């Protein structure tokens, strides 16, 4: 199927130049613990409570902070305080089980919560969030190397969720209300390795995330990811949506996608 590109309006605003495309404003990548809940041919997981195998791994081996808390439902199930049916029902009845189990249902991403100090339990701030920014959801399989971090979903941030702090408001989450969201199967996700597109400024050859659950991504990187999403969705029922997503993002950000260079992330530099 050949999809014609929509013509850009003439004489309105000039497309962004190379320098502005490299700025990291508004687009965000988030890292998540892997969740195999709801895994199917259409999606890699992140749509329900983890399997028993993953719950054991998260608690015994990875020792993830929330999974290991006594008031976490997965921990309660692990300790035989509740049944598997009660655990699953808690997730599907809109009760909070864990962040990852609801990602591809709610299409909402947060920067995480403070785990220590006087602000323990409070949400972290997303300082550069903007409506229309691309949100990139990343993870890696248990015991996989950081270089193997993949992209399992992308969406356009249509809604900024804020909380008040004294006389000011700050963004704690971003959400998609529009059609512009794509999720990927396991095979597709492994074709979208995050470090193909992104590199650390001080040590670009090293694919290392470090602390923090989110980081900011340039417009160029966003377009590169969207272009590759079109390729991995080719021949699927999401092909047209992937094309429209790329066109829409470029339109609202005034980008000529043909002028954006090829990916030059840590994996590309290392070759």
Question: What topology does this entry show?
Answer:
Elements: H1 18-21, E1 27-31, H2 52-61, H3 73-78, H4 84-92, H5 103-106, E2 108-110, E3 134-139, E4 150-156, E5 159-165, E6 168-175, E7 181-183, H6 186-189, H7 194-197, E8 214-217, H8 219-232, H9 239-252, H10 266-270
Parallel strand pairs: 1-3
Antiparallel strand pairs: 1-8, 2-6, 3-4, 4-7, 5-6
Structure, explained:
With about 270 residues, this protein is an alpha+beta fold. The longest helix has 14 residues, at about 220-230. It has a domain at about 20-45 and about 125-270: ph1033 like fold (Roll). Strands 7-4-3-1-8 form a 5-stranded mixed β-sheet. The model is unreliable at about 1-15 (pLDDT under 50). The radius of gyration is 19 Å and the shape is globular. The protein contains 10 helices and 8 strands. α8 packs antiparallel against α9.
Uncertain stretches: 1-13
User: How confident overall, as mean pLDDT?
Assistant: 88
What is the CATH architecture descriptor of the domain at 18-45 and 125-270? Roll
Radius of gyration: 19 Å
Given the structure, what is the number of helices? Answer: 10
> What sort of overall outline do the alpha carbons produce when their principal axes are compared?
globular
Strand content: 15-25%
Q: Mind summarizing the main beta sheet?
A: 5 strands, mixed
Topology order in helix (H) and strand (E) letters:
HEHHHHEEEEEEHHEHHH
Terminus-to-terminus distance: 34 Å
Major sheet strand order: 7-4-3-1-8
CATH class of the domain at 18-45 and 125-270: Alpha Beta
Percentage of residues assigned to helices: 25-40%
* Annotated CATH topology of the domain at 18-45 and 125-270: ph1033 like fold
Category by helix and strand content: alpha+beta
């Amino acid at each position: 199927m050949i999809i014609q590109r929509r013509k850009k309006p003439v004489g309105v605003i000039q497309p962004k130049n190379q320098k502005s495309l490299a700025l990291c404003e508004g687009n965000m990548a988030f890292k998540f613990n892997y969740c195999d809940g709801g895994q199917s041919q259409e999606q890699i997981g992140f749509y329900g409570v983890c399997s028993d195998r993953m719950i054991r791994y998260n608690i015994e081996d990875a020792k993830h902070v929330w999974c290991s808390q006594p008031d976490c439902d997965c921990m309660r199930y692990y300790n035989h305080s509740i049944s598997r049916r009660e655990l699953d029902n808690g997730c599907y009845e809109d009760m909070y089980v864990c962040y990852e189990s609801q990602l591809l249902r709610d299409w909402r991403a947060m920067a995480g919560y403070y785990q220590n100090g006087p602000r323990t339990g409070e949400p972290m701030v997303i300082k550069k969030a903007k409506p229309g920014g691309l949100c990139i959801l990343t993870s890696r399989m248990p015991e996989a190397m950081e270089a193997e971090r993949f992209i399992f979903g992308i969406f356009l941030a249509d809604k900024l969720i804020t909380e008040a702090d004294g006389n000011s408001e700050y963004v704690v989450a971003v959400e998609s209300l529009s059609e512009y969201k794509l999720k990927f199967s396991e095979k597709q996700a492994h074709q979208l390795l995050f470090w193909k597109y992104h590199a650390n400024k001080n040590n670009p050859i090293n694919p290392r995330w470090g602390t923090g659950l989110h980081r900011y991504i340039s417009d160029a990187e966003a377009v590169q990811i969207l272009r590759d999403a079109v390729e991995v969705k080719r021949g699927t029922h999401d092909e047209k949506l992937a094309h429209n997503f790329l066109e829409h993002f470029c339109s609202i950000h005034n980008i000529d996608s043909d002028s954006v260079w090829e990916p030059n992330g840590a994996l590309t530099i290392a070759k």
